[in-house]
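To close the section, here is one more complete example, presented without commentary so you can practise reading it yourself. The ligand is adenosine monophosphate.
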Amino acid sequence: MEQFNEKEKWSEIWLEALKSNKTIGFVPTMGALHQGHLELIRTAKSRCDLVVVSIFVNPTQFNNSSDFENYPNTLPTDLDHLRQENVDFVYTPSPEEIYPESPELKLYFGPLESNLEGGFRPGHFNGVGIVVSKLFHIIRPHFAFFGQKDLQQVAVIQRLVRDLSFPIELVIVPTKRESDGLAMSSRNLRLNKAERETATILFHSLIKAKKELIEGKAWFEVQKEIQADFEKNQLTKLEYFELIETASFEIQTEFNPSKKSSLVVAAYLGEIRLIDNISINF
Ligand code: AMP
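Output:
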């Protein structure tokens, strides 16, 4: 595995790869790697000749400075994981490499911008869009791999690729979970024991709501019941629990089985904000 910090170095490697007709798969991450990231990497390995992983904690996508400052940094262990997975290249740029100056450009993703993650984290998707665009321009991969765990981010990046004509195929990888159902996340490292135990409420509420919707219960009743479940629990605070049409991310007021729909949730466990989702009918 080769680690590099400078885009000029990658340009040389990229040219060689292209000359020998190798396909390049790219997995962008913010580090603190867990099995969810490794699932993306394994999928990339199975589909591409060369895999490059980036580790960069992008300051511009954090709307909360303490979340940024406390974001876990486990670089030596991350590099060990990547070596074990036979990753070919790892890009670990400095903030100055990515942001020689702070960008003036703002990206606006339409309705995706104002609802759910967009609404609760102002500026977040602009930051994601800018950094992913920069990384796509630097790495110039054929394929890029993203997790279904961040479903609204997937919709944003699909929009980005379409609207800016990036010649990149996106591959979406299902959410990897702990054995009790909690979606793996780098932020789970910051949960204390009681919060970690309570955190399964996100997944359990998604499963319960999906079952009830499929059995024909009205969405407003299901939502009220889930909100009450969260209110009963002292250790967690629900931010949203919504039914959306998956492609547009539009919030639905009732369940229509002929529309591809998903349930999405965000909740705090103490200071830590977690998100999760499941698809209902595909
Ligand atoms: P992050 O390091 O949190 O920016 O995540 C990097 C990539 O890993 C993103 O595409 C995430 O959606 C994906 N990812 C994070 N957690 C999981 C998970 N539990 N299962 C699958 N993919 C994940």
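Once you have examined the tokens, check your reading against these statements. The mean pLDDT is 97. The domain at 186-277 is CATH 3.30.1300.10 (Pantoate--beta-alanine Ligase; Chain: A,domain 2).
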